[in-house]
Amino acid sequence: MKRTGIVKKIQAALIMLACPFAAFASQDGGEDYHPFVVEGKIWYCTEENDAGDSFKLDYMISGDTIINGYACKKLLSRRERGRKDFNWYFECGLMEQGKRVFEVYKDRIITLYDFSMEVGDFFDYKNYRALVESIETWVTPQGREYKMWIIKAIESDWHGFFYYDVWIERIGGYCWPFRPFHEVFADGSFGVDVDRCIENGEILYDSGEANGVPSATVQDRQDAPCFDLQGRRLNGVPQRGMYIRDGRKYVVK
After folding, report:
1. pTM of the model
2. 2, 60, 176, 226: which one has the fewest Cβ atoms less than 10 Å from its Cβ?
3. How do the domains of the chain map onto residue ranges?
4. pLDDT 10s digits, 240-250
């Protein structure tokens, strides 16, 4: 038994030496900071398509892995839409350095959240650029206080759409916890809403009790370009049919 324990300690030490981010994976980023990447945390979500059909989509942090030398937590997901079963599947690795959260893949590392940002800071995610418009405080029904970042996506390659989202400390974006900006897809999906977020048996977020959390909305600019559902730019508002402008879908009958 003693020898087995020593071997495990040696293995753990070797992993820490081999992984430059390993030492930061569980750091909380400060005395008052609540980490995002926590073993066992689960998000129960609802995904909705253009027809109004709802599907279950859940995320869970469970287990450890090493990807390209980086020690990570495993992000798992299960979804009703587009899969044959409702089982858990591996999505990517997650690690947290200070107040920054990273998605880790075999070929790249992407910053998912930066909870150290201040008002006026810019944030880049894939082909999006966002601006922190304001930082507010959300008081939960249990009296806990969490910081909220009101995020405005100002640049993207997705047909010039402009979106808002709200990041909540410890929980992430409540419109889609693993996509920092709320968006409309060409297939008609409006994205995902978080119903509940639970950590170690504690309900961190419940959409039915989220009083004081601002709604994530999109700007409705009348001068914004119009697109069809396949993402092709139109010359203007069509005489009939559906079109998208500034992230919202409209119907002309």
Report:
1. 0.70
2. 2
3. 2-215, 220-253
4. 877 766 555 66
